[in-house]
Design a protein that fits this description.
The protein has about 290 residues and is mainly α. The chain contains ten helices and two strands, in the order ααααβαααααβα. The chain is globular.
Length: about 290
């Protein structure tokens, strides 16, 4: 609980310090290369967050073990199962949409070098996002909540997954910033995530899909006692999403059943995500970490 509260206090301090520094750096950059005020604020938050991690987070072996990141002989196999399942499930959604006429299989005409670069970038992006987000959500957040709620698994999973789904939409609503931004404009940017949540009628189908995806990720991490299947699953899905535009041409418009080109914002995508969660749960062996309260 103490580590979780420390995280909240440090992050609040980062936001406040960023609000003070952003106007100063904005004026400084105007003399050399103009940048948007919002971008400067976001970059300062990111940089200060990385500094905080370097200063305050001491990653010990015990931390890696408790988060499920300790490397074992079966870790690569767990990662591979998750990665392959993510690619196959989203690929299955794409195949169904092609067969039903909702999309057309039309690969781009890249050279071999172009395809290698495209695949490498998609793989690198998938690995980076998978490692970072799973360490944060299924590692730090979930394990902290398990300690805070005295090992109530259902409640910890529900909070973690809801937070994971919602946080993807906190930048949806743009906040107006004047030509001469100051400290108050920084504070307005800090309220943007809460303003964005008012737009929920526009993004709830995607949020449902991300919630189901989060359940699959949390189930994989908890069932196996390791983050590697969740990292693999996350990386595999991001890998596919970064490549699907190079193979598939989707018809415009979104329907409740088919969703859109996002693949997980319609009923069919939700069914595939639910099936993926069940398959992965069945594939993985229980970690045997002991009894937990619901």
């Amino acid at each position: 609980m103490r580590s979780f509260l420390k995280f909240v206090v440090v992050f609040a301090g980062i936001l406040l310090l960023s609000a003070v520094l952003a106007p100063l750096f904005y004026d400084l950059f105007q003399m050399f290369h103009p940048y948007k005020f919002e971008r400067i604020f976001q970059r300062i938050v990111m940089i200060l967050s990385l500094v905080a991690v370097a200063c305050f987070v001491r990653v010990k072996k015990e931390t890696l073990v408790s988060y499920g990141l300790a490397w074992k002989t079966q870790s690569l196999g767990l990662f591979g199962k998750g990665f392959l399942l993510g690619v196959l499930v989203l690929g299955g959604v794409g195949v169904v949409r092609v067969l039903s006429g909702q999309a057309v299989f039309a690969p781009d005409s890249f050279s071999w070098g172009g395809w290698i670069a495209k695949f490498s970038l998609a793989l690198g992006t998938g690995l980076l996002i998978g490692i970072m987000e799973e360490f944060f959500f299924r590692g730090f957040i979930f394990r902290s909540l398990m300690n805070l709620t005295k090992s109530r698994v259902f409640l910890s999973v529900l909070i973690t997954t809801s937070f994971y789904a919602i946080i993807h939409f906190i930048g949806m609503k743009k906040v107006f910033v004047g030509a001469d931004p100051g400290f108050m404009d920084s504070l307005k940017l800090m309220t943007a995530p809460f303003v964005s949540l008012k737009e929920w009628p526009k993004f709830w189908p995607e949020a449902v899909g991300l919630f189901l995806f989060g359940l699959a990720l949390n189930g994989a991490a908890y069932r196996s006692g390791s983050l590697y299947p969740a990292i693999g699953l996350h990386a595999g899905c991001v890998f596919f999403v970064k490549l699907d535009d190079s193979f598939l041409q989707f018809h415009a418009g979104r329907t409740f059943f088919w969703g859109s080109k996002v693949l997980y914002d319609g009923l069919m995508g939700w069914l595939f995500l639910g099936a993926m969660a069940l398959v992965l749960w069945t594939m993985l062996k229980p970690s045997g970490s002991g009894d937990s309260r619901v």
